[in-house]
Amino acid sequence: MRLIVPDRPTGRLTDAWRTCVGTGRFDLALRRDYQDSLALVQRDIGFRHIRGHGLLSDGVGVHRPYEWRGERRVRHAFTYVDQVVDAYLDLGVRPFVELGFMPSALASGDQTVFWWRGNVTPPRSFTEWGDLVRATVAHLVDRYGLDEVRGWPIEVWNEPNLTDFWRDADQAAYHRLYEVSAHAVKDVDAALQVGGPALSPGADEWWEPFAEFVADRDVPVDFVSRHAYTSGPARHVPFGTRQALAPAAELLEQFAAPRRRLAGTALADLPVHITEFNSSYRPDNPIHDTAFHAAYLAPVLAAGGDLVDSFSYWTFCDVFEEQGVPTALLHGGFGLLTHRQVKKPTYHLYAFMARLGDEVLARGPDHLVTRHPDGRIAVLAWAPADVTGREPAPERHTVALSVPIGGPGTVSAFLLRRSVSEDAGNAWAAWRELGSPQSPRPRQLDALREAAEPARAHRALPVTGGRADVDLTLTRHEVTVVELTPVVDETPPWWDDRLLDPPGEPSTGGPQSGEPATGPASEERR
């Protein structure tokens, strides 16, 4: 059945889907491969902010205690901070600042997380922690300007509800950390944005106590944050993980949870930021590399902005070392890009989103129809992804639309289509066909980059009564973006397509206007 797309918009497509993106630890941004990947992502997608762990960890070298004349002192050094933030701003992306993890010289214990050993214990001196936060934020303001840094959200810690990320998942200790941190940020400038608590899935019971704590003690909160993942328990294999997934709608349920749980509290009307989301929470799950993954997340990108102010894909590239240095180019990393900038299908989902217009004309379980200010129509469509595996995925899925296009007198529209699927724009499939090379040679890398490009097609569509029929047949796990542009025919009156016929062959075309040809060329052909 053909869906009649209305001419009047039903809403607006916000930038929530690209307001932020995740990254590996802060100091990885010093690497060339990382910066090359971020430059490509910014060219094709254009994220607004970037968030990752480790700003205050030892590898960045901010907290530098020393002794002088028998007294312990602390120097705050920003050598690497400046290099990273300068690079971000040069590439058109701003920090979404995460305050963490604990510098080892300030930590109250030696518990760490990840291969790179981020310390996750509370500070042994909350006063010194406050000084560290205050000095860091003041330096950013001094270097980049108050107006600029006021636009950078500052989040306190990461997933304190998990014992892996906060010793004993001590809620009271986190509340104290949040209080000291928030006041330190506001000491620099009252208009700076600070928030938390950056909860993992399955921690909704933390919301009400957090709201009560900050209200009772008059602690500033400018936004609330949480994370969203849909994978089940991990089944480990050498250098990899396998996990079952919940339906993608579960991500949207998690997006909606903070506002639902905070209704009626002092935090009810605050912005909500999903500062990490993905299918699997593991950086070694091959699902991240597949065409299935793009189709799985398409409805989330299409609808997530109706629920939250931002949702940050974790992460933009595979320069990422939580479980150690990756052992193969395609290893199930979180990234939209592999090392060396091979695009995954989910990269193209984001690049397709960047081609959509601001006005939403229609949306459904397998499509989103938008319009640009200049009248162009952009349609994102996807073949639904089934996580149950109860039945084989259908080989074909159809979307039929009647789309409003052009003004009076428009008789044709130019259709340009880009697609990724199991058979197109699928670097994972090409890599497997190459024999899964751990370290692809230059020629293999070239082949993978070429195979990773989306399929493209174009044609003219007739427009009747201000409408064009768009009939899309999608293959298994396909995601496609279709752009329709009203055609203004500027063909010269003397042009005749028959001029392109090879000599001595029967004519395959006629004058574009449909009228008999005239002029010297047509006379010669007679």
Q: Helix proportion of residues, in percent?
A: 25-40%
- Overall morphology: globular
Number of strands: 25
Q: By helix and strand content, what is the structural category? A: alpha/beta
| Biggest sheet architecture | 7 strands, antiparallel
Rg over CA atoms: 27 Å
How confident is the prediction overall: mean pLDDT? Answer: 93
DSSP strand (E) fraction? 15-25%
- Which strands sit side by side, in order, in the main sheet? 2-18-19-20-25-22-23
Report the total helices. 12
Distance between the termini: 48 Å
Oligomer: single chain
Poorly predicted runs of 5 or more residues: 509-526
Description:
The chain is α/β, with parallel strands linked by helices and 526 residues long. Helix content is 26%, strand content 23%. It contains twelve helices and 25 strands. A seven-stranded antiparallel sheet has the order 2-18-19-20-25-22-23, covered by helices on one side. A six-stranded parallel sheet has the order 8-11-12-13-16-17. It has a three-stranded mixed sheet with strand order 1-21-24, with no helix packed on it. The longest helix has 19 residues, at 126-144. It is globular and about 100 Å long. Residues 509-526 have low confidence and may be disordered.
